[in-house]
Write a structure and sequence with these properties.
Helix 1 packs across helix 2. The protein is elongated, with a radius of gyration of 19 Å. It is built from 3 helices and 8 strands. The chain starts with a helix and ends in a 5-residue tail after the last strand. A hairpin with a 3-residue loop joins strand 5 and strand 6. It folds into 2 domains: 69 residues, GMP Synthetase, Chain A, domain 3 (2-Layer Sandwich), CATH 3.30.300.70; 66 residues, SH3 type barrels. With 153 residues, it is of the alpha+beta class.
């Protein structure tokens, strides 16, 4: 099995859609292939099934002994692509910066260079999130990791 060949097949299939490849892992020892796809407007189970069938049709014999998993990234999973920030404009994220700071806020905007956040700050002694007027801009190079914060309201 060749990872670059699988990647090429996936990217060709996604090329004319609003979906994109987030991650591809190939473990030859455990005979497991994991594909994570996402889309600007989300990904459905049918999209994942369709991609799985497409990959299997392209690599029938080679995949015979492999376990193939196609899914979308989970909500709590860190972003791996700048495009994921665009998809999540309006959502609250937690960002670990290159300076080892942790900030939380709503993504107000995202472009090819970075993001603009409206910060959410904790009031001392309170667990409630207080929205401030403070906005910050972060360049992608200053972000170590970021993920959506789940709201259980």
């Amino acid at each position: 099995m060749d990872k670059s060949a699988i990647q090429s097949v996936i990217e060709n299939k996604l090329g004319a859609t609003n979906m994109y490849l987030v991650d591809l892992s190939l473990n030859k020892v455990n005979k497991k292939i994991q594909v994570l796809i996402d889309g600007d407007t989300g990904v459905t189970i049918n999209d994942c099934v369709d991609m799985s069938r497409h990959i299997r049709s392209e690599f029938e014999e080679e995949l015979e002994d492999y376990n193939l998993e196609v899914s979308s990234p989970g909500v709590g999973q860190p972003f791996t692509m700048n495009r994921q920030y665009l998809k999540n404009v309006g959502r609250i994220i937690e960002v670990n910066t290159a300076d080892d700071e942790v900030v939380e806020g709503e993504i107000l905007a995202a472009d090819e260079t970075g993001i603009k956040l409206q910060l959410h700050l904790n009031k001392k002694g309170s667990r409630k999130k207080i929205i401030t007027e403070e906005e910050i801009e972060l360049h992608y190079s200053s972000i170590k990791s970021a993920k959506v914060v789940l709201s259980l309201k």
